[in-house]
Amino acid sequence: MVLQDRYGQWAGKVFLVGFWAAAMSSLVGVWNGVSLMFADFVTIVRGGASEDADARAGGKWYKAYILWLTFPPMAMLFLGKPVWLILAYGVLGAFFMPFLAVTLLWLLNTDRTPAEWRNKLHSNVLMALCALAFVALCVNEVRKAIDAAL
Q1: Tens-digit pLDDT profile for residues 56-108
Q2: Residue 136 in contact with residue 128, Cβ under 8 Å?
Q3: Per-residue H/E/C for 82-117
Q4: pLDDT tens digits, residue range 33-58?
Q5: What local confidence, expressed as pLDDT, does residue 61 receive?
Q6: CA distances in angstroms from 43 to 52, 56, 97, listed in the order given
Q7: What is the radius of gyration, based on Cα positions, of the chain?
Q8: Most confident of 79-83, 89-93, 132-136, 137-141
Q9: What does the pLDDT read at residue 81?
């Protein structure tokens, strides 16, 4: 390991512990957080409330999304096609930040947001620049993924 050779054995071990912690927190954060958001979303769309058991951890929609996060990627791996899963993940991830920037730009300028919390001119300019930058990066990532697939 380069860090271990350059800075000593302790640096290599600290890096590995930090890398493991970052990877595990990302894994657990996505499985738990996104599953909770999905369960809440489906419960509310179906006319329920966020306090319903189905919208909580352990509810049927939470479990359904955890299963969705677990088994399709495993099936792709066993089918010998994990490359397509990686490309799909990269392309979908590239759409997230432009979506987030545009959504925040829209939400923080509506009349449903209290006036004191709405974006001011400088915030709107910076958010629009961020949205444009993320759209450009998204287009670039999608183009690279398509070129790699061909």
Answers
A1: 888 899 999 999 888 877 777 777 767 777 777 777 777 787 888 888 888 88
A2: no
A3: HHHHHHHHHHHHHHHHHHHHHHHHHHCCCCCCCHHH
A4: 888 888 988 888 888 887 888 888 88
A5: 92
A6: 8, 10, 25
A7: 21
A8: 132-136
A9: 64
Both tokens of 149, joined, read: 């697939």
Residue with tokens 């949205």: 131
> What span, in angstroms and rounded, lies between the C-alpha atoms of 29 and 33?
5
d(CA 52, CA 33): 17
**What one-character-per-residue DSSP string does 34-69 give?**
IHHHHHHHHHHHTT--TTSGGGSTTSHHHHHHHHHH
Sole residue written with tokens 């990302």: 26
Helices (H) and strands (E) in the chain, counts: 6, 0
Three-state DSSP state, 47: coil
The token pair at 132 is 């444009």
CA distance 120 to 30: 32
